[in-house]
């Protein structure tokens, strides 16, 4: 039996045991079923041959059906309600239809371990899908995949291999144009969204309205994962299946009608995962898991307020970086809305440093992903008056091409930089974890490129590694320690290589 089938059986067994804790009749049924299972799996004595058509140690799986009318006679004479799904419930639980109390809601959704396991594994798989996409892009660009950084977690490496293999098999058996590696990006985003939806559902216990809303979001998230896997022609994922079973079971227990995304012919679009992620975050109103980190988050807020007041508070920044890294290490998701809302207003003021710890880098990556997925404003912002540095950079670079090596491409920031500096083209090279620096060389080597910008805030690649290729092709390299605003970028360009660009 495949491992994922056993996981589903184990999850159903845990659910039945939880129901049996308060139902003597169901406990009796389970004991009878257990006896039947033990009898059917018992090894026969050596040499014993069971009679044809007989079964060793027969035992009834359930009490006689004759008992059922006695239970049904307890029902009042009233119109027959619509039947709910009853798999795994005792006969008495089916008959008694009282509205669930607050305690019942809590116990019915007291599946923190199940949702927590789904969330944890999905976060690993999301990272693995992005790693597989990076690996495939390097292969297509002609780079040696052996030069990639090996992920520290062996499970991430294993899942990355599986996703890459699925893509190779699809590519080999498909006579249509070359498949788009973005399929793996969508898979990673959808799996990460399922992790967020699971965290939201786990934090929605004891709140009836929140439970109903979270069920719809988990249903859509698991559907997007299934659709992404089908587009890759990959096998079903056990955590997607577990989430599907959990949603159906919870919806039946709470009498919640879920209209969409629970049928094979009604799958969610995995390419729309940023929109779904935004709705999950809006529903959460803050990360439920952040509640246990609340005291540390409040201290973080005070340090950030001190930074806004003082500007260059190095000690406060050190406390911020350390605190964020520790919270992530203790289980707070890097995509936590609480962390993001606190850091967004000041992230461009983060001091320039190459030794940011892994947890803080993961938070920066999620902030970058959030900024890249936000829709463009419907009203064009008023452009600030160009500074002297902007005017000088425009004079030096007007009509020429510039490469920007950073995180995820932000169309709004790209257009603002191109317009402010009068560039002929701004080539934005997106970067991801474990990506080989050699993948940047084709863009750097283009003859029309006059300058290379490295946004170190959003890139995990060292300045020296990129400089090697810039020196090889005679291109000046500018380190961007802050954000993408034209004023900030122009100031760094003039300060670091203004003389070289002007021929000095």
TrEMBL record:
Residues 42-92 are annotated as: Disordered. Residues 74-83 have a biased composition (Basic and acidic residues). It comes from the Bacteria. This is DUF2325 domain-containing protein. It comes from Tautonia plasticadhaerens. The lineage of its organism: Bacteria, Pseudomonadati, Planctomycetota, Planctomycetia, Isosphaerales.
């Amino acid at each position: 039996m495949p491992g994922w089938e056993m996981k589903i059986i184990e999850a159903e067994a845990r659910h039945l045991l939880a129901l049996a804790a308060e139902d003597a009749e169901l406990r009796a049924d389970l004991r009878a079923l257990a006896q039947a299972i033990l009898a059917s799996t018992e090894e026969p004595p050596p040499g014993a041959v069971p009679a044809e058509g007989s079964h060793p140690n027969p035992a009834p799986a359930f009490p006689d059906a004759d008992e059922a009318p006695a239970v049904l006679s307890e029902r009042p004479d009233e119109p027959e309600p619509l039947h709910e799904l009853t798999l795994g419930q005792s006969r008495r639980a089916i008959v008694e239809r009282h509205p669930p109390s607050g305690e019942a809601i809590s116990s019915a959704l007291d599946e923190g371990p199940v949702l927590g396991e789904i969330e944890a594994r999905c976060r690993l798989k999301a990272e693995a899908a992005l790693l597989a996409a990076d690996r495939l892009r390097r292969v297509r660009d002609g780079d040696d995949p052996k030069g990639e950084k090996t992920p520290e977690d062996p499970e991430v490496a294993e899942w990355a291999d599986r996703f890459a293999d699925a893509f190779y098999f699809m590519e080999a058996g498909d006579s249509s144009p070359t498949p788009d590696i973005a399929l793996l990006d969508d898979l990673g985003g959808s799996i990460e969204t399922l992790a967020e939806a699971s965290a939201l559902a786990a934090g929605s216990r004891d709140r009836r309205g929140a439970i109903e809303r979270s069920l719809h979001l988990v249903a859509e998230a698991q559907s997007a994962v299934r659709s992404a896997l089908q587009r890759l022609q990959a096998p079903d994922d056990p955590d997607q299946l577990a989430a599907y079973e959990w949603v159906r079971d919870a919806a039946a227990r709470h009498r919640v009608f879920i209209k969409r995304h629970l049928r094979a012919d009604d799958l969610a679009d995995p390419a729309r995962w940023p929109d779904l992620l935004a709705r999950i975050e809006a529903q959460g109103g803050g990360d439920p898991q952040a509640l246990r980190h609340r005291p540390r988050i409040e201290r973080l807020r005070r340090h950030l307020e001190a930074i806004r007041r003082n500007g260059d508070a190095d000690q406060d920044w050190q406390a911020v970086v350390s605190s964020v890294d520790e919270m992530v290490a203790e289980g707070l998701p890097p995509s936590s809305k609480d962390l993001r809302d606190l850091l967004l207003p000041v992230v461009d003021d983060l001091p320039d440093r190459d030794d940011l710890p892994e947890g803080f880098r993961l938070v920066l990556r999620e902030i970058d992903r959030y900024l890249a997925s936000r829709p463009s404003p419907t009203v064009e912002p008023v452009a600030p008056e160009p500074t002297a540095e902007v005017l000088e950079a425009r004079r030096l670079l007007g009509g020429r091409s510039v490469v920007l090596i950073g995180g995820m491409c932000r169309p709004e920031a790209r257009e603002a930089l191109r317009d402010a500096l009068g560039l002929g083209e701004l080539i934005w090279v997106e970067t991801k974890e474990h990506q080989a620096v050699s993948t940047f060389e084709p863009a750097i080597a283009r003859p029309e490129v006059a300058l290379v910008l490295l946004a170190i805030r959003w890139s995990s690649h060292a300045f020296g590694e990129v400089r090697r290729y810039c020196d090889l092709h005679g291109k000046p390299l500018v380190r961007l320690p802050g954000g993408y605003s034209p004023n900030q970028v122009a100031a760094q360009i003039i300060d670091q290589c203004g003389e070289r660009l002007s021929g000095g």
